[in-house]
Structures are given as C-alpha cells and as structure tokens.
Amino acid sequence: MDLDLASLSVTQALYRVRGQYVVQEPKSARSRRRVDLTPSLAVLLRRHREEQEARALLLGRPLQETDLVFARPDGKPTDPDTLTRAFSRIVRKAGLAGVRFHDLRHAHASLLMKQGVHPKVVSERLGHSSVAFTLDTYSHVAPGLQKEAAPRFDELLGGSMSGEGGGSKMGCRGWDLNPHGAVPQRILSPPRLPFRHLGPPTAIIE
C-alpha cells in the first residue's frame, strides 16, 4: 500500500485453510491490480498506521513493512469470524441488520455506476474477469442509467429538440412504406443541429 500516492496493489491473498493462514497468489490475473484510494481514506489509513506503530513499540516489536494492515496486536491475522461479528454489531446499531460485510463491495460498485463511472473502471477496481461480467452482475443499476442518459443526450444537442408547448421539433415528415406493403415505418426528420447539412435527406417523403 502506497499512502503517498493513495493507492494499493493487490498482489497476494490471505486464506484460512484448516485453521491455518496461508498467503497465496490471487485467483486470477485480473485479480492482480492497483486500486486508487480516496484522499479521505488515505488519511484514515495513515492514522491507523501511526496507531499500529505505537502499539507495536509498546509490545517491543517494531512494525515491519510486511505486517498486515489489519491484524491483531501481536501482528497475527485477524480471525474472519471476529470481523464478521464486529461488522454485524455495527450494522444492527445503524438499523441495517442483515447487511453482510461482503455487501460493501456490491454497494461500492453500484454507487460508482450510478454516478456514471465507466463500467470498465468499476470492473478493474473489483478485479472482475471482464466488463461483461460486471455489467451482468450489476444490471439492476442499468434502468436508472438509461433514464439519466436520455436528458443528457438532449443537453448534448443544446436543448434544440424542445419545441413550443413541450412538443418536439423532430416530428414525422413522411412514411417509408415497408417493401411488402405492410406496416408503414415512421421516418423522423433530422434534428436542427448548429451545423450545415451536406445535403437533403434522401429517405424522407414530403
């Protein structure tokens, strides 16, 4: 972890196997990644590091660079069950009973996507195997993103699509008949963009 650059590099994973803690390689190549930290989190982690160093000196064992960021006072790994119980007490006190520690990962991804962060960036932060997997996993966020995208497209065109009375200037100017003479397909006239058209639309019937 580099607190000066506010980033952490995922290069190892700690597993508990039959009561023993084992350090292994991450599950996949995509799991090996660098994650940028928020400035506020970097400040909190720096304070946490200072507290760790003070405790280590009291115990007569200076903190080493290889020590875990979150560990017991003697430097050994924190038991996952201890973390789970502590987190459960916190969420119950906050009125969020039932929220799991792992749900924080899902909340992080959902909030980023809701804020318009590119799915590839979210996928890289989570260490997913592909962007497609990220989109499938967080498809529940997509409907809201679609709704927000529509007015943004209108803003991109400078609001020129809005006509008087709330109508649209992109009205129907004709009908392009289906080759089989079936249901006609409506053709919309091009929007009035702030640049010159190179020629009249050829698919429109006046």
Biggest beta-sheet profile: 2 strands, antiparallel
Q: Give the strand order of the largest sheet, numbering strands 1, 2, ... along the chain.
A: 1-4
Radius of gyration: 28 Å
Q: Per DSSP, what share of the residues sits in E-state strands of 2 or more residues?
A: 5-15%
User: Roughly what percent helix?
Assistant: 25-40%
| Helix/strand structural class | alpha+beta
Description:
The structure is a single chain. The chain is an alpha+beta fold and 206 residues long. It has helices at 39-58, 80-93, 103-114, 119-126, 131-137, 142-156, and strands at 7-10, 13-17, 20-24, 33-36, 172-176, 185-188. The chain folds into 2 domains: 1-78, Intergrase catalytic core (hpI Integrase, Chain A, Orthogonal Bundle), CATH 1.10.443.10; 79-158, no CATH class. Strands 1-4 form a two-stranded antiparallel ribbon. α3 (103-114) packs antiparallel against α4 (119-126) and α4 packs across α5. It is elongated.
